[in-house]
Design brief:
heterodimer; A: mainly beta; B: about 120 residues; mainly beta; 4-stranded antiparallel β-sheet; about 0% helix
Chain lengths: ~110, ~120
């Protein structure tokens, strides 16, 4: 079956770095998205990876290894506003999206 | 960047009435729109996929007669919650994707529905 696994919750300190891991199993693969969702708000797009490697966008980077079915989202210089849920979303060969349950990231001062 | 407008932001209605939620892509044509429901502290749950000009595809367990979806144009999809009940109270979110399947989803701001 198709499945996304990511940790339920993580805690990190303001100013630090945190890595949120995601493993996926899909029927075929057409890329992986990361979204950020603050409580009570709609998700916002962070990144899209379809090739192996690291994509950097400011404080956020996303990594993909297709052979391992693995991705991570790296957040640097954490700020309190980064407290949110981070959703890992895989796209299968039919371009269907498989959503992870999200990782709740708690930032402490 | 691409913008998706969802309206209304919040709505309170009485049990038994119907509520319509609109989702518009403002600066791109959305051949596919998605509707989600999210209960407090729970994951985003896909309800249905809406393709312009054709019937929506509903996820298992979603009543198609209760949640009517119309995608009559490339920029507008609507979700109507018919005969709403208190258990339908939730956060409903739409998203849209332009003609490229691998383009990211753009989300509306969501509609908080409270049924009294």
């Amino acid at each position: 079956g198709q499945n996304i696994d990511q940790p339920t919750e993580m805690t990190a300190t303001e100013g630090a770095i945190v890595q949120i891991n995601c493993t996926y199993q899909t029927s075929g693969f057409n890329g992986l998205f990361w979204y950020q969702q603050h409580a009570g708000e709609a998700p916002t797009f962070l990144s899209y990876n379809v090739l192996d490697g690291l994509e950097e966008k400011g404080r956020f980077s996303s990594f993909l290894s297709r052979s391992k079915g693995y991705s991570y989202l790296l957040l640097k210089e954490l700020q309190m506003k980064d407290s949110a849920s981070y959703l890992c979303v895989s796209m299968d060969s039919n371009y269907q999206l498989i959503w992870g349950a999200g990782t709740k990231l708690i930032i402490k001062p | 960047g691409a913008v998706v407008s969802q309206h209304p932001s919040w709505v309170i209605c009485k049990s038994g009435t119907s509520v319509k939620i609109e989702c518009r892509s403002l600066d791109f044509q959305a051949t596919t729109m998605f509707w989600y429901r999210q209960f407090p502290k729970q994951s985003l749950m896909l309800m249905a996929t809406s393709n312009e000009g054709s019937k929506a595809t509903y996820e298992q367990g979603v009543e198609k007669d209760k949640f009517l979806i119309n995608h009559a144009s490339l920029t507008l999809s609507t979700l109507t919650v018919t005969s709403a009940h208190p258990e339908d109270s939730s956060f409903y979110i739409c998203s849209a994707r332009d003609s490229t399947e691998t383009s990211p989803l753009h989300f509306g701001n969501g509609t908080r529905l409270t049924v009294t």
